[in-house]
Amino acid sequence: VPQTLRDKKDAVLKRICSQIPRGLILFDRGFARRKVFEMLLGFGHHLLCRAKSNAVFYRIPKPPKHPKPGRPRKYGDRLNIQRLRYQGMSIGNKDYQITSHLVRTKMCPVDVRLVVIRRRPKRWKPYRYFLVFTTDLTLEIPQIVEYYQHRWQIETAFRDLKQEFGFSG
After folding, report:
1. How far is CA 118 from CA 57, 60, 82, 88, 130, in A?
2. pLDDT at 48 over 70
3. Residue 1 predicted with pLDDT over 70
4. How far apart are CA 5 and CA 82, in angstroms?
């Protein structure tokens, strides 16, 4: 039976997931695929991932006052990150404007905690938004931000090494 490249990648991912101890796995947004998340969650892992720029998040729907026939709604209203309320928060030595919400997304089969960091590079420029989400609902906002900062430091170290030794990519 011929296997496609995707089948081989999924087999490798399944093998890796089964071998590593249960815990929190940090992902780059390039790995934000429902199939990957379902596999991880199936092995008892939690994930922390940066959201893609086109990611859509939904509020959790309120139960209807008068039940209607049919399946209840899975998704509530679409979340508009520009209209959320942000609060100032110091994490480490930096000040952030942050908001956090329990939401749903079609990327992940379970509810996730979305953390949105808003910053304005210059006063006259528009806000920029950085979105991360996790399936571990016990994590506090500072922990989520710090974990992703550590992941980002590794990313920049790899970039610097590639430039130093002349590797492309």
Report:
1. 16, 22, 9, 10, 6
2. yes
3. no
4. 39
The tokens for 26 are: 């940090």
Identify the weakest region by mean pLDDT among 7-11, 65-69, 94-98, 117-121. 7-11
Can you tell me the distance from the alpha carbon of 6 to that of 33, in angstroms, rounded to the nearest whole number? 12
Give strand pairing partners of 129: 118
| Residue with token string 């890796």 | 16
Contacts from 16-24 at CB under 8 Å and sequence distance 24+?
Answer: 17/42, 17/43, 17/45, 18/43, 20/45, 24/48, 24/134, 24/136, 24/139, 24/147
Q: What single-letter amino acid sits at 164? A: E
In whole angstroms, what separates CA 127 from the centre of its chain?
A: 20
pLDDT in tens, 104-129: 999 999 999 999 999 887 889 999 99
Integer Cα distance of 54 and 47 in angstroms: 19
Helix ranges restricted to H, the chain: 5-19, 34-42, 141-165
Mean pLDDT, rounded, for 31-39: 86
The two three-digit tokens of residue 2, written as one number: 């011929």
Q: 47, 40 in Cβ contact below 8 A?
A: yes
